[in-house]
Write a structure and sequence with these properties.
It is a single chain. The strands form twelve sheets. This protein has a six-stranded antiparallel sheet, with no helix packed on it. The chain has a four-stranded antiparallel sheet with strand order 4-5-6-7, covered by helices on one side. A four-stranded antiparallel sheet has the order 11-38-37-36. The protein has about 1300 residues and is α+β, with helices and mostly antiparallel strands. It is elongated. Helices cover about 50% and strands about 20% of the residues.
Length: about 1300
């Protein structure tokens, strides 16, 4: 087990607070007064007196016993048997008389109490009569008030007429507003044109600015080039100066050389002329080279200077051109800006004028309408509140009258009992006088006996001698003289014990009577206090009624109404929402507070208080709006999950408050949420099973198995279900709103258990203590269950999960919150049939036959005979519709999805007389059939994209006749006939189309209803629709279900939410079945309850009704959903027994179209040979013995045989199951443990000792059971007196000290503790 917090609904204190909150607040003052009253002291004094009387009686008993013992000791030697008997009789009579005297005293006291009670009762009856008179007066006043109510209703009708006029005025105002909206639209279009021109001009300006930027960049480049050229010029000048210096230096050097040569010539006059000539030639060469270089450098300098000057001129020209262009562009920009500003000012002034006029008109009309609406709403609210108060008062008075009648009956019963007690007391008084006289007589005789015994003491020895000599019988007395004393002592002890037990019983009876009297007094006091309270309430209500009458009369005279706070922000919200719904909640609370504070309020003061309270509380109210949550979110009010894919509930825009649509009205309206409510603990409503019990992060095996590893998941135990949400990889990610698996705790086969290492062989050793298994039912026949392994972080977390799941299941069992089973999944046929793998459509022909559409064609399976018929040689079948009235089978088949018509006789295997292909139905998406009132034959409706073709079906040629074509608003996704209109579903919408063209079609998603505008904004697929009545429809989309009326407006604020993304959806008149990846979810279309969950993964429907389905498991299975609550669908199909290991095959017969599905002869012969070879296979065919009578011998010489521990007869299997159901206790732990024990332990019928029941079922115990000793060896003093516990001999009731009684009580206690 596990504990809960004090604020949880599961705790004892929490449940007591919830249950007794109303009664405790009313009776606190009364209880406190009773606890401190003088009656408690009186009762304590009476108890003390009783204890004193008990002590005195005990003392008198001891004295009497001592006197009797002394008397016996004195007369021991001389007393005779007759005298002993007389003394004993006298003692017994004395004790009886004493007891009767004590009883009479007690009865006198009780009589006094009873007389006092009778007086109190007479007073209460007089008060009751007065109250009845008051009730009559109140009833008359009630009738008067009803008359006033009728008058008020007539006034309300007149006000309703005024309201209609106001609505017409509102329509006119709306028309004017629409005209103004058109004008606004024209102005907006003009504004858009101007804005477009502005954008064009701005784009031109941007282009010019880009050009300017490019020119600036070119100028910068030119400046850079100029700077580079200047640097090159400087370098060239430096080089030229260097060359000039070198030239001068070379000239100087040449002059020096010439001078030296001349000197050399003079000195060396004797040298030869050839050497001189060589020197001169070298010098001339050097000179020519120098001259050439000088010329080259001078030319290069001139060329570079000229190019530099040209480049500078070009850059200056470009700069001037760009500057001039920039100035022109700047002038143009300034002009355009001025023009734009002028245009803006003009348009702005025009818009302001138009909007001002519109606002003035709007405000005037709004104020008029609001004033009128306020008048009517205030009057309606007052009348409604007045009527509610009166009805509540009437109910309270009726309840109090019923309580008074019940109390009256109980008081009459008590009066009868009191009369009996008085009669008994009078009888006891009469007997008391007689007993007192008899007691006095007895005491005198006792005294005389004492005196005689004392006087005859001296004569005892001779009498003894004579007796010893003459009489033989007294020899034994002589040998054992103390046997009389011992016997008398024993008798005295037994008498004393009996007296003590009688005393205790009387004291207990007296205490019970006193408690009952105290309860009656308490009830009378509380009843009187309640009557006083009701009188005070009636007075205050009468005063309020008079005040309200006066205020209403004054209002009708003056035609003035109090100003109420405007709760609507705009006229559009006011027209589209219910007026003053939020205001009513605040008003009711404020009025109740004022009534508590001052019981006689005036009308004006109450209105002012309500206005002030509204003004104070309104800013603190939640700003709620419908929101789509991206992760699982709990309701802040009921702690349940807000299940759904989108628009799961309301959320506050200011604080983190979120709640269901249904919880909005009952949730606290204070914003932000108080901290004590924000930290509300998890808890479950025990009566309804609503609320979140536990949540946390766990791990589940990957889809490929435990061997591949584990993946993280978010688990929530909520609303009697276990939700699992997949978590993507990564620590910071949040789970999505699509549930990966849902398990129902109310399932009969649901169980939670730990696992062993052998159960999860691929898990690591450290993970095994942290793994537990959750099991749920899967198939009804053959019975199969599915199990899910869950890994927690540690062992303590696992124990917490297991404890919470088991405890919640036990609570559900105790409160009888059983799972409502709508569909019982059954395997329709043997899964070894190869045709099942490729089935895409199916239909039920009758109780013994089904039609299936695999890829090979149309086949018919006779379930009971195992005969398969090939009905049609068409290609892949997509949809099957049977028309038994016209004896035609309609198919969508082939590559191009054409509609084909086949004769009914082809289902029996005969050759088809016709195969009609409707050529205009190429690309058919959906077909539907039905009958119309004006058309006697069955009609066929074929949907091809948006077009719907309508045909009449006939038994004779040409078998079909086209009579109409209808256009839908979108591509048809679903279609059904509702009475004489065709309901068509398309993307984000449904519509009712008139087939014969005699009326207008109805759009079931009305575009004028703003609460359904979200459907047009999202492309959601249409799944199905259900007609609840003439005035209400359920529209199922791929993300939710919406309830609408006959005009397509929303009829219910709450929407039907899917826990996971639906793959398909089927429906009938009462339930909607949604198919998702993890299984089936069944919803009640009337109550919107989530009724059933079936964990069949990857299942898809094969027909529109959803009765036949294909389970994509290994191997694939054909599943039949037996509707338990519908008699027609429940008896529609006879499901045969199936097995996974059958070796049946499709074998041809003489007919080409018929096959037999059975085990081939060769296979049967092979199985027979194997069985003959292997003796174990043969022994398996022989059943075990069912009954033995085991005989146990008690030993030599006893001659008794006792049947031990085994039955005289064994129950049959059906009886065994019944007894097992009866013996199962309601607690969850035993309900899970017992089936495990019962599987291995047979139940045995034990013979019963009493009449009425034939036997009691008890489990057979093994020899190792320590408790078996009670059954093996019954306790007794000797073996001769031992009788077995299963003996069939009828015997008397066991004595209080009997060991068999102890054994029986122990067994009973064991069973009772198990039940507890």
């Amino acid at each position: 087990g596990f504990t809960y917090t004090t604020e949880s609904c599961f705790s004892d204190r929490g449940s007591l607070k919830i249950l007794m909150s109303s009664t405790v607040t009313k009776d606190e003052d009364v209880q406190r007064g009773l606890e401190n009253s003088l009656q408690v002291e009186a009762y304590e004094r009476r108890i003390q007196r009783l204890e004193q009387e008990k002590l005195e009686l005990n003392r008198k008993l001891q004295e009497s016993t001592q006197a009797v013992q002394s008397l016996h000791s004195s007369t021991r030697t001389t007393g005779t048997l007759s005298r002993d008997k007389e003394v004993k009789k006298l003692n017994e009579e004395i004790e009886r008389l004493k007891n009767k005297i004590a009883d009479s005293n007690r009865l006198e006291k009780q009589l006094e109490d009873v007389v006092a009670l009778r007086q109190e009762y007479e007073d209460s009856t007089s008060k009751l009569k007065g109250l009845e008179k008051l009730c009559k007066v109140l009833k008359q006043e009630k009738e008067d008030i009803h008359k006033q109510l009728d008058e008020a209703l007539e006034r309300q009708k007149s006000q309703a007429k005024d309201l209609k006029d106001a609505h017409q005025q509102r329509k006119l105002a709306l028309q004017e507003i629409s005209e103004m909206n058109d004008r606004l639209a024209d102005l907006r279009s003009q504004k858009q044109k101007l804005s477009r021109q502005l954008r064009d001009k701005e784009e031109e300006v941007e282009v010019v600015m880009q050009k300017i930027d490019s020119m600036r960049q070119e100028i910068r480049k030119a400046e850079k080039a100029r700077k580079e050229l200047e640097a090159q010029l400087e370098d060239a000048r430096a080089e030229a100066s260097k060359e000039h210096k070198l030239r001068e230096h070379s000239e100087l050097f040449s002059k020096q050389l010439e001078g030296e040569l001349e000197t050399l010539k003079v000195k060396q006059g004797g040298r030869t002329a050839g050497v001189a000539l060589q020197h001169q030639q070298e010098l001339s060469k050097v000179k020519t080279e120098l001259e050439k270089k000088i010329l080259f450098y001078e030319e290069e300098l001139l060329r570079r200077e000229a190019s530099h000057v040209l480049e500078i001129k070009h850059a200056k020209k470009g700069m001037q051109d760009s500057e001039s262009q920039q100035l022109a562009l700047q002038k143009e920009i300034l002009m355009l800006k001025d023009k734009l500003e002028k245009a803006k000012r003009e348009r702005h002034s025009e818009m302001e004028e138009a909007v001002g006029t519109l606002k003035d008109k709007y405000e005037r009309e709004r104020t008029l309408l609001l004033e009128e609406n306020k008048k009517f709403t205030t009057e309606n609210e007052r009348l409604c509140s007045f009527v509610d108060k009166l009805t509540a008062q009437n109910r309270q008075l009726e309840d109090e009258l019923q309580d008074l009648a019940a109390k009256k009956d109980s008081v009459a019963h008590w009066e009868a009992q009191i009369a009996e007690i008085i009669q008994w007391v009078s009888d006891e008084k009469d007997a008391r006088g007689y007993l007192q006289a008899l007691a006095s007589k007895m005491t005198e005789e006792l005294e005389s006996l004492r005196s005689s015994s004392l006087g005859s003491r001296t004569l005892l020895p001779p009498v003894d001698i004579s007796l010893h000599r003459g009489l033989v019988p007294y020899s034994s007395d002589r040998l054992d003289p103390f046997w009389k004393v011992r016997r008398s002592q024993k008798l005295d002890m037994s008498a004393r014990l009996e007296l003590q037990s009688a005393l205790d019983a009387e004291i207990r009876a007296k205490q019970v009577v006193q408690e009952e009297l105290r309860k009656v007094k308490d009830a009378n006091i509380s009843f009187e206090s309640k009557l006083k309270d009701s009188e005070a309430r009636n007075r205050s209500l009468l005063e309020e009624i008079e005040g309200l009458k006066k205020s209403l009369e004054g209002k009708y005279r003056n035609d003035s109404d109090p100003k109420l706070h405007d709760l609507q922000d705009s006229i559009f919200e006011y027209f589209n929402t219910s007026p003053l719904a939020h205001d009513l909640t605040f008003r009711s609370s404020s009025i109740s507070e004022q009534e508590i504070l001052c019981p006689k309020p005036e009308v004006t003061s109450s209105l002012s208080v309500t206005m002030s309270s509204e003004q104070q509380q309104e800013p603190k109210a939640h700003q709620l709006s419908i929101k789509s949550f991206s992760s699982p979110t709990q309701c802040s009010h009921c702690t349940s999950l807000m299940v759904g894919l989108v628009r799961q509930g309301f959320a506050c825009d200011v604080c983190p408050f979120a709640c269901h649509v249904l919880c909005k009205d009952s949730a606290p309206q204070v914003c932000p949420i108080p901290p004590e409510q924000a930290k509300r603990p998890l808890g479950v409503d025990v009566q309804r099973g609503i609320g979140t019990a536990y949540k946390g992060y766990v791990k589940v095996p990957k889809p490929t198995g435990v061997k591949r590893g584990w993946q993280r998941a978010y688990a929530v135990v909520c609303d009697c279900k276990l939700f699992l949400y997949d978590l993507p990889e990564g620590k910071s990610t949040q789970p999505g709103v699509v549930a990966s698996q849902v398990l129902d705790l109310r399932d009969e086969d649901f169980s939670v258990s730990s696992v062993l290492a052998s159960d999860v062989i691929h898990a690591t050793r450290k993970d095994i203590p942290c793994i537990f298994r959750v099991t749920a039912s899967l198939l009804g026949s053959p019975p199969k269950t599915s199990s899910l392994l869950i890994l927690t972080e540690n062992d303590s977390e696992k124990r917490k999960w297991v404890g919470i799941l088991e405890g919640l299941q036990s609570i559900l069992h105790k409160n009888k919150l059983k799972n409502q089973v709508v569909h019982i999944p059954q395997e329709a046929y043997d899964s070894t049939l190869s045709l099942i793998k490729t089935i895409s459509a199916a239909a039920i022909i009758d109780q013994d036959r089904i039609a299936i559409g695999p890829e090979e064609g149309l086949y018919v399976i006779e379930l009971t005979r195992d005969v398969i018929v090939r009905a049609a040689d068409c290609k892949k079948v997509y949809q099957i519709k049977l028309v038994p009235k016209e004896k035609i089978v309609v198919l969508i088949c082939g590559r191009n999805h054409h509609v084909h018509l086949y004769p009914w006789a082809s289902l029996d295997g005969s050759e088809s007389s016709f195969d009609i292909k409707l050529p205009e139905t190429k690309g058919c998406q959906f077909i539907a059939t039905g009958t119309l009132k004006k058309v006697p034959s069955t009609c066929l409706f074929v949907a091809v994209k948006r077009q719907i073709l309508c045909y009449e079906m006939h038994r004779t040629k040409p078998f079909h006749k086209k009579f109409n074509e209808i256009q839908a608003l979108g591509n048809v996704q679903w279609m059904a006939l509702f009475r004489d209109r065709l309901c068509v579903g398309y993307l984000s919408g449904f519509s009712l189309l008139n087939i014969q063209g005699d009326g207008l079609s109805v759009n079931l998603v009305n575009p004028s209803d703003s609460s359904l505008s979200f459907l047009s904004q999202h492309p959601w697929d249409a799944l199905c629709a259900v007609e609840l009545s003439n005035e209400e429809y359920l529209l199922c989309f791929s993300h939710m279900g919406v309830y609408v009326d006959a005009q397509g407006r929303r009829s219910r604020l709450q929407e039907l939410m899917w826990p996971a993304t639906p793959v398909a959806c089927t429906c009938n008149s009462s339930y909607v079945t949604v198919y998702s990846e993890y299984g089936l979810d069944v919803f009640d279309v009337y109550t919107m309850e989530w009724v059933q969950t079936i964990g069949l993964r990857r299942i898809k429907p094969l027909n529109v009704e959803g009765t036949l389905n294909l389970l994509n498991s290994e191997p694939p299975r054909l599943i039949y959903l037996n509707n338990k609550l519908s008699a027609t669908e429940g008896s529609a199909l006879t499901v045969p027994e199936t097995s996974d290991n059958s070796k049946k095959q499709m074998l041809r017969t003489r007919s080409k179209r018929k096959y037999v599905f059975k085990v081939p002869e060769e296979e049967r012969l092979q199985q027979r040979r194997e069985m003959l070879r292997d003796p174990e296979l043969r022994s398996r065919m022989i059943s075990n013995p069912t009954n033995f009578n085991h005989v146990a011998h008690m030993g030599p010489g006893d001659g008794m045989q006792v049947l031990m521990d085994l039955p005289l007869s064994v129950l049959p299997s059906s009886q065994d199951e019944n007894t097992r159901e009866r013996a199962r206790p309601p607690s969850s732990n035993l309900s899970r443990q017992q089936p495990l024990q019962q599987r291995g332990k047979p139940y045995i019928s034990w013979p019963s000792t009493g009449a009425g029941e034939s036997g009691v079922t008890m489990p057979f115990r093994s020899t190792s059971d320590p408790d078996q000793e009670f059954e093996k060896e019954p306790d007794s003093d000797s073996t001769k007196h031992s009788t077995p516990s299963n003996s069939s001999n009828p015997s008397g009731p066991p004595s209080p000290n009997s060991p068999h009684r102890n054994q029986l009580t122990l067994d009973g206690l064991d069973q009772s503790t198990c039940d507890a």
